[in-house]
Amino acid sequence: MAQRGPYAKGVAKREEILTVALEVIARQGYRKTSTRELAGAVGLSEAGLLHYFGSKEKLFEEVLRARDEADTTRLGDESDAVGKLGAIVRHNADVPGLVQLYSTFSAEAGDRQHGAHEYFVERYQRLREALAEGIRDRQTRGTISTAADPEKIATLLIALSDGLQIQSQFRLPDEPADLLDHLIELLHPTPRS
C-alpha cells in the first residue's frame, strides 16, 4: 500500500533533491555546486533544502548513498563484485563531478568527528567483504591464484580503484584507464608447463 500524506510528500521531495543533486554534481562538480543552487533547482529555500537532511554534510553523504544505489541498480545483472568494481570505475570516468565529491568527501571524513565518517567505515567494510568473496569465487574457478590472500587483494583493489578515480581528474585523454583490469590479470595463476 502506498504511503500518503505529509510523510509520503517528504520522502518524494527528498528523492527529488537527491536525483537533482546527483545530476548537478555529476555535471558541475562538488566545488561548483552550492546548496543554494540545489535548493533553487527543486523549488526550495536553502534552509528548506537542509531541513530534509539536517546539514550540508548529511546531504552530500546521502548523495553518495544514492550514487551507490544507482550503481547497484545499473549493474544488477553483474553478480561478480570484482567485475562490478571495474564497471563502476569505468562508468565514473563519465561522471567526474561525483568522483570529485567522493574523493574530497572521503578525505574529509577521515576525521572521526566528521558526520560521514561512519558511512565510509561501513562502506569500505561492505566493499572489502564483497570483493574478498568475489576473489574467493574466482580462486575456486581457477581464474585467480590461490596464493593471493582474498582480504589483502580486496583492500588493494579498493585502494587502486579510489586512486584511479582521483587520478582521473588529472588524466590526459590518451592515458589508460584499465589498470584495475590489468591488476586482475596479474593475479591469474600462471599456466604450468
From TrEMBL:
One Pfam match: TetR_N
Keywords, ordered alphabetically: DNA-binding, Repressor, Transcription, Transcription regulation
Residue ranges flagged as DNA-binding region: 34-53
Domain HTH tetR-type residues, every copy: 11-71
Protein name: TetR/AcrR family transcriptional regulator
Species annotation: Kribbella ginsengisoli
